[in-house]
Specification:
single chain; mainly alpha; 0% strand; 462 residues
Length: 462
């Protein structure tokens, strides 16, 4: 099921809210959330709900044994390693096995058959959530969860199950049983949900159409200007698509008394690549920092090892996004840039005007999104060559070839405006006005949904 559907808005969510708030007992409230979370996930692919439950069970049993063998260090470590290996192996089989077989066949001229396994939705997200629980439990940073159903609720909670943010167990450990719902939280959460819905339906879906039309159109028609337009459009699409989902997830969680951490902080105002990754997909970048980079030694090791740590982390970050070489190249692209910034570029950027630093960062990010969006190497090379070869575009011919671009262009300025931080601490919008704006956004979003086709979130495929 998708948040941006009429089924979710007018059936699923109202039923969950009514049942949840009618029941006073905390245990039964959690039962309602668990049941509806399982329904939410199984709506699209019911057979894979077993996989989520099995992964949760592995973490549950592993957690109990880690807790039980706390005094027996070797046995505790053995259980920890087995649990992590089982969880990672599950992710590997469903997401990376066919990719690995294809590479082996290509390298050794072998003919191993592909498994052709359909990728379960959200497997990367919920696997990383489960791993955070197991690792933090092993490090004694969280308490063991002795109730399997509560652990499963943490893993499958429908607001963040499909596409994040990656919620660590320690963030909501106490709120599973001790949260307090309030009218203020519900209203604030609902507003946040509506804003996220508007980001997705009004901006992301419309600007995203531009990139699709240009990249799939006749390459002879679209020149340099249009390929830059496609890069900008996709950058806006992926930001409003993913940050919109995160807003909806955070808002829904707050409606039910859960407080998730922020996942975006206006990444397109960044003045360096380091700054960008402090603002973009914060839950993923901090996950790799805390569970991979720091355990490898971080920057507290010799320089060559430190640089290797950065390469490892970013190769894994790219590979996390998908079993394609373009994602690995995208990760290594950012690794190289971050290394350059840490070694010498950062000092240079400090001397430049902020506007030039921003231009530098956005140019790097736009090129990165081209690599991220187009999986075929030939398509990536063609798009980048068109962007930097200054090839003339006959705008009239290009528009006539696809008149829908004109309509979609209307939403580009809107996206550029909305990507900036406009909040002013000195000026606060009255609650009544905020409510009116949210109602208007909801009405407009519903109008768009009624006339739209199915358009899933980009990060569903990860």
């Amino acid at each position: 099921m998708v948040f941006s559907t009429l089924t979710f808005l007018f059936a699923f969510l109202p039923i969950v809210c009514i049942l949840y708030f009618l029941i006073p007992n905390r245990t039964y409230k959690n039962v309602i959330l668990l049941i509806f979370s399982l329904v939410f996930y199984s709506w699209g692919e019911p057979k894979y709900i077993v996989l989520v439950l099995a992964a949760s069970f592995v973490a549950y049993v592993g957690g109990l044994l880690i807790h039980r063998f706390d005094a027996k260090k070797k046995l505790k470590k053995t259980v920890f390693i087995i649990t992590v290996v089982l969880l990672v192996a599950n992710l590997f089989v469903f997401k990376y096995l066919d990719f690995t077989i294809t590479q082996i066949n290509g390298l050794f001229n072998s003919s191993f058959a592909l498994a052709k396994i359909v990728l379960p939705i959200g497997i990367s997200f919920y696997t990383f959530q489960i791993l955070s629980y197991v690792i933090d439990l092993y490090k004694k940073e969280v308490s063991v969860q002795k109730n399997y159903f509560y652990l499963t609720l943490y893993v499958t909670f429908f607001p963040q199950l499909i596409a994040g943010p990656i919620v660590r167990y320690q963030t909501i450990e106490d709120e599973i049983n001790a949260r307090k719902e309030s009218l203020d939280d519900f209203v604030c959460g609902l507003r946040r949900f509506i804003v996220g819905l508007a980001k997705k339906v009004i901006i992301a879906n419309n600007v995203g159409a531009i990139a699709v039309m240009i990249y799939s159109g006749d390459a002879k028609i679209y020149g340099t200007q249009f390929y830059w337009l496609a890069a900008i459009a996709y950058a806006l699409q992926i930001y409003f698509d993913f940050s919109g989902y995160s807003d909806m997830a955070i808002g829904l969680g707050r409606m039910f008394g859960f407080h998730f951490l922020e996942n975006f902080n206006y990444p397109y105002i960044a003045t360096s690549i380091t700054d960008f990754w402090r603002r973009w997909h914060i839950s993923l970048s901090t996950w790799f920092r805390d569970y991979v980079y720091i355990p490898l030694g971080g920057n507290r090791v010799k320089k060559h090892r430190w640089l290797l740590n950065i390469l490892i982390v970013w190769a894994l970050t790219g590979f996390w996004h998908g079993a394609e070489w373009n994602f690995i190249a995208w990760g290594l692209y950012y690794a190289a840039l971050l290394i350059c910034e840490k070694l010498f570029l950062h000092k240079l950027l400090k001397k430049l005007p902020k506007f030039l630093c921003w231009l530098y960062a956005m140019l790097i990010v736009l090129v990165g999104w081209v690599m991220f969006n187009l999986t075929e190497p030939a398509a990536i090379i063609h798009a980048l060559s068109q962007m930097f070869s200054f090839r003339y575009t006959d705008i009239t011919t290009a528009v006539i070839a696809n008149t829908d671009i004109v309509y979609a262009l209307i939403y580009v300025p809107l996206g550029l405006i909305c990507m900036l931080p406009w909040k002013n601490k000195q000026f606060r919008i009255p609650d009544w006005l905020a409510n009116m704006i949210c109602l208007a956004l909801l009405a407009i979003s519903i109008v768009f949904l009624v006339g739209s086709t199915y358009n899933p979130f980009i990060y569903f495929r990860f």
